[in-house]
């Protein structure tokens, strides 16, 4: 059970980090790209980055809890069907 939870967190975190990296690369390329004035590029504000990090952590916690609950329901339904089939046989 703990292994499933860890794998779920790793999967979710991997996708979130991948999206974040793509956005950061886009920002840095635009800031340092040839012919683009740095004042026209993105500006990284530490307070905003911190807020986004907190919101991402909250979202990750929500996803893990919700996914765990949904997975438990699916497993319970699957075993319930199996038990009913065994009783009928």
Summarize the structure.
The chain is an all-alpha fold. The chain has helices at 2-32, 46-88.
Structure in words:
The structure is a single chain. With 89 residues, the chain is an all-alpha fold. It has one domain (2-88). Helix content is 83%, strand content 0%. The protein has helices at 2-32, 46-88. The protein is elongated and about 70 Å long. The chain starts with a helix and ends with a helix.
C-alpha-based Rg, rounded? 22 Å
Please state the structural category. mainly alpha
Distance between the termini: 30 Å
Strand content: under 5%
Question: How many E strands?
Answer: 0
The ordered H/E elements are HH
Mean pLDDT over all positions? 79
**Helix fraction bin:** over 70%
Shape: elongated
């Amino acid at each position: 059970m703990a292994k499933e939870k860890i794998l779920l967190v790793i999967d979710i975190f991997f996708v979130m980090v991948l999206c974040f990296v793509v956005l950061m690369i886009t920002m840095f390329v635009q800031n340092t790209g040839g012919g683009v004035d740095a004042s026209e590029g993105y500006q990284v504000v530490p307070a905003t980055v911190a807020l986004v990090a907190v919101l991402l952590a909250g979202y990750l916690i929500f996803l893990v809890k919700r996914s765990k609950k949904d997975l438990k329901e699916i497993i319970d339904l699957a075993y319930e069907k199996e038990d009913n089939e065994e009783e009928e046989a």
